[in-house]
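Convert to structure. Protein one:
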Amino acid sequence: MSVHRRAHARKELTPPSKKYPDKESEILYNLVKESYGGRLTAAELEEVKKDVQAIVETSKALREIRLHNSDEPFVIFRPYRGRK
């Protein structure tokens, strides 16, 4: 990945304002609330809401990064040196 693309990727991963949740996070939160709301306290539901918003924002940022077919994951080579 080029230096320019890495800088662009870092810029894209900065989370946007969490004041106004979007429709996707609202739908996912309501799904969790409907499924597990009876087992969770109000504080736990608020924590779930924050977590869902963070996941949706991260997913959107990752979707915006365009990869080429030739892009490969970064591999760290660690030679085997026997058991420690």
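Protein two, convert as well:
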Amino acid sequence: DILPLNLDEYINQIINNFKPLTQEKEIEITFTNNWSNQPFYFDKDTFDKILYNLLSNAIKYSKEGGKIDVRLNSNHLKLLEVEIEDYGIGIPKDQQKFILKQYYRARNVINSQRPGTGLGLMMVKKLVEKTDGEISFTSEENKGTTFKIKLRNFNRQFEQQKASVQKTVEDLEPSSEIYEELEEFSDSKILIVEDNNELREQLVKTVGTYFQVFEATNGKEGLEVASQIFPDIILTDLIMPELDGLQMAKQLKEDINLNHIPVFMLTVLQNSKQKIESLESGISEYLEKPINIKILLAKMINTLKWQKKLRQKYIHESDTENASLFRNKNDQEFLQKLEDNIIENINNNNFSVHDLSGNMGMSRTSLYMKLKNLVDLSPQDFIIHTRLKHAKELLIKGGISIKEIAYSCGFSNPKYFSTSFKKFYGQSPSKFLDSLN
């Protein structure tokens, strides 16, 4: 995404991030900004990679107690010229033709114990050229090296990007059929995790028309909000500060309290490897930017309908071994583990929600929220339902009285057993036995 960058703050922050390395070698970095006070419009992720690679290269080839100059110059606000000059070992003349080639590494590098292949410089060249920029350098052995890059100011493209986001939202009006389904799920909680303020605000405004919406500006904040509200769906950007969308999805997948939540990735996936990595991280859906809101809403409805279907089928079919019922393996294994835990304690009529949540390593609140989301049962009802499911199996097997079954399944009162059985299965245990005959 193209973003407006305050170059003063942005460059100083990057220089500050290198402090551990510069302090170790006692290197001073000076920064001169001859760009105007206007923002520079560029893809931040690309700019990060360019500057981090050039600066780390300059530090690596600098002598201890040395100096590095970072200079910004403007060409009528159309081009940004960045110069990074070090006063280090320089590059021998016979090697300069290889400097931007793959696998180049100076033979006279000072800290040869530090790993390095020169791949960073080749990546910088590719990134600069990909954005219609230029890269050049001058170097003299034992005197130092200066890299100069020229980057386009994408201010016009930023305006187009804004317009496309706006257009996406304006194109939103759903059909009457979708609108009816949206009304059905209006209580659903949607968490939007996006660091681009404008896009996040547009999504919050639009999605918030139909659902309860919560927001976060990065993956770390997203995890915190998710653990508080237990959303039905999370919409997330891929590239974000502190914790990106993929890392957040991985942490969600590993968290028993939250790994049932579907995650939609809002991005442009680059290749099949990235898709595989995303699938392994638990991503449910992908949507390309700029977001087509009609498609987004349709996918959200499909996911919410699937959740509703699971809740209904689970109560009526009660088959945790039927994998087609579940959105993912985690949900199936979680419910099976809960059932196994209850069955192990089936004779104990004092087995409580406190016992169950403790055995699962969850708080009672987390267990409640997760079960309501998955099967629309409270933990107490889930315990009763599992006892009844076991009782139903015993009734089918035969040879035991209804009263004995009630006691063996943890019901201290046969009458309460009959009432509960009728509530879940629509008929009393005796009527159920009659239907078998």
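The two ends are 67 Å apart (CA to CA). The chain is about 50% helix and 15% strand.
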